[in-house]
Amino acid sequence: MGPRLSLEEKRKRMLDIFHEMPEPFLLKELERIGPKQKGIVSQSVKDVVQSLVDDGMCHCEKVGTSNFFWAFPSEAAVKRKNKMMQLEKELAQMQAKQKELGDLIANAQLGREHTEERGNLVEEMTETEALWSGQQEELKQFKECDPVLMHRKKEEAGVAKDAANRWTDNVFIIQSWVRDKFNMDMDEFNKFFGIPAEFDSV
Fold first, then answer.
1. pLDDT of residue 47
2. What's the sign of the alpha-carbon dihedral 101, 102, 105, 110?
3. N or C: more exposed end of the chain, with fewer CB within 10 A?
């Protein structure tokens, strides 16, 4: 048994069959010729031929109930030439784009050459940014003493206190109702519902 062939090698050898014998083939003929002449396993011939058809490197035409496959050497040369022209065009476009980007970079760097004046300005800007950052940190420390913020927190605390007292009143109402309805002792009620002895309005 010969060496295991890659798909690309099988495709190349199958094209060689078409080019060496430029005539239409039935699939079963290729399945017979492939193993004998090119070492292509017969079970893989169908997939190899179909991949060539999908890539436009091989023709397939249905005649009656049979499919015929062929590929002529001249067509392969034309396809290679067209592919080469396409790649050359893409290369030229990439080179033009590279030059354009190079020009943009060069223009962007104009006026950014390192000079003593520019160095001083950059140093001054760095110091200013550091000073600003320090002031921001200092401001955070004094923010807690901001009168507006303190007033807002006081208002929020008042709202929270009122809400807590409303819930406390509701608990007392329920306690009284249970005491009168079921004759339950308050200590027993508090123990049953996990209410601490010091529970009261704030």
1. 94
2. negative
3. N
